[in-house]
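[Help] Beginner question about ligand-bound structures

Sorry if this is basic. My supervisor gave me a protein sequence and a SMILES string for pyridoxal-5'-phosphate and asked me to "get the holo structure". I don't really know what that means in practice or what format the answer should be in. Inputs are pasted below exactly as I got them.
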Amino acid sequence: MKFRFPIVIIDEDFRSENNSGFGIRALAEAFEQEGFEVLGATSYGDLSQFAQQQSRASAFILSIDDEEFSPGPDLDPAVLNLRSFINEVRAKNEEVPIYVYGETKTSRHLPNDILRELHGFIHAFEDTPEFVARHVIREARNYLEGIQPPFFKALIDYAEDGSYSWHCPGHSGGVAFLKSPIGQMYHQFYGENMLRADVCNSVEELGQLLDHNGAIGSSERNAARIFNADHCFFVTNGTSTSNKMVWHHNVAPGDVVIVDRNCHKSILHAIIMTGAIPIFLKPTRNHWGIIGPIQQSEFEPEAIKAKIRANPLLDGVDAEKVNPRILSLTQSTYDGVLYNTEVVKGMLDGYVETLHFDEAWLPHAAFHPFYGTYHAMGRKRGRTKHSVTYATQSVHKLLAGISQASHVLVQDSETTKLDRHLFNESYLMHTSTSPQYSIIASCDVAAAMMEPPGGTALVEESLTEALDFRRAMRKVDEEYGNDWWFQVWGPDALAEDGIGHAKDWELKKTDSEAVESSGEDAWHGFGDMARGFNMLDPIKATIITPGLNIDGRFEESGIPASIVSKYLTEHGVVVEKTGLYSFFIMFTIGITKGRWNTLLAALQQFKDDYDRNQPLWRVMPEFCAKQPRYEHMGLKDLCQYVHQLYAKYDVARLSTEIYLGDHRPAMSPSEAFSHIARRKTERVAINNLEGRVTSSLVTPYPPGIPLLIPGEIFSADIVEYLRFNREFARECPGFETDIHGLLLEVGQHGEVQYFADCIAE
Ligand SMILES: *Cc1c(COP(=O)(O)O)cnc(C)c1O
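Answer (accepted):
No worries, everyone starts somewhere. Holo just means with the ligand present. The predicted complex, written as structure tokens, is below.
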């Protein structure tokens, strides 16, 4: 396989018509003769800004004869430049070969801290360029081999091999596509390698995912080491599946389980599948609709026992005798709220058998000391005594995994080891017998990328960019003075520069301890929080639009976030999630300065168009095409129209409080769901829903968190909320809350009716 990893030469004379120039170019030619590309630069400055160029280098040749005058190694500017460049490279990469090239200078001129980092010192004109080139190339090749993690290496070797295959997939390394015009297009789009490397599990040399052996097994062990776990299982169908695997291994019908009410729907699916009886921990919410953490006091075993006693499905069960089977906690909520997992472990170790942290959004935290104990498994952290700890992570959400790349990490306790064989029974139940190998390769590569120091540098960079973005937003705000601007949800005080400390991001009552008792509301709006229990992950940025203040009161005028995000979409910026008066972006390891600066510029443009009330047909043509009724309005008019409707119906309070009510179960989730298979459900119009039992999940978007789960009763509040949504959709089409679980049917006269599936009576 031909990879393009040039040898990078930095020499002031690289393009000069003098002796040094001839010398260094002769070396460059020798590299090219051997089939290596060369990238020549005349200064470090050319290169140090371009991380992508740096990571593409197979070796560096750095010249140190740039200065004629040499006052000694500690003062020589050439040496100082050399040192700072080498430090920069080594901060991310300990392996790439670095050579120093000198004409008059020798290693005697270099201090030890530099010499230690070098693979060699090349004296110009001493050996032939060809000899030097072969030596460097050998090191460069070893380096490129050495960075390949086990599975990806085996896959490259296999795809390179060019053997004819009789095994599936049927496209036979892509050949089938070439026999049709549209197939040709597919082939050209994805490229030959993606298809050559799309093989099935009869290729023995790659190992078996389902058996965790061979190259795949080595990769999983490598990833386990990198992520500080005792076991790692790659999963090719997302964390949705990872969660179900963990549950099926640990939970049996009738078991009591403790679940974050703000959990991903895959956890709810797992409850249904296993037949568990859930006890829910309820998260806080603020008036912007941002979902906060579960209060620390809810994790007290006594508080959990009280809930067990109060649960109608556990009538007659002695709460004192129950050991809940599993706790599943969303570790990093959508908005980036984290728990101190050491505190959770300390409170529940031995009481709950399995501690499961759903870290779909948190695979990066293990690689930067910034996150301290705010993630499940860290280097040099102790084990729990009894309970086994699991973390499930979406490699594809924040690391360099392709869609569906995920893994299950397991940490044994002091007294209980995972039985890998038995865990695999559950693993097999949820894994296709034809796993996608490029997903496996991306699990393998994403893990290898995170190996310190490279991974630490990547996380540091996303933190840095996230903070720079916040500082830039504040600077814009200051410049506007009393005029409005978007706020980024987060602590009042930010570090002047750099990434600051995790302590700054803790959710506590107020930022300053001195005014702690003054009762003043803190920036987060969640009220009184236990110290040292929660923090906000800075790489997730919730941007708050004007219109709603922290107490939930509507301002005179306002800008609903969905209008901003629709506007942004039409201007080439797509955000991750939109709430009522907030939307959300994140700084993954793929962030670029260009991306967030473009967002900032687009927000400026929005403000400008809003302030001038630009006609919608001009600034949001796609939206007008879909919703012509707003065509005659200006941008400001539309914002005000929707804002006033939100205010009239008090939507912010409604959609927050609807989650805070108590949901009473009439039967267990799995029992309710089984009514579907038995065809014992009934489609009920929303006017008649009160008191009925749902057979399905009911989930409003935003925020995408299920409101009801199978077996729960439609309360009067919820029915009122659904009715209100129906009204609102009529008055304000294009801005309604989408509710999954409700069915819409259009009657003979065009009237719209909403239904929900319930247990038949
Ligand atoms: C996205 C998500 C999942 C599911 O992950 P996929 O990889 O998309 O299947 C699970 N839990 C949480 C908290 C998530 O946000």
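A couple of things worth pointing out: The chain has 26 helices and 25 strands. The pocket of pyridoxal-5'-phosphate is lined by residues 238-240, 243, 264, 266, 330, 358, 360-361, 394, 406 (CB under 6 Å). Feel free to follow up in the thread.
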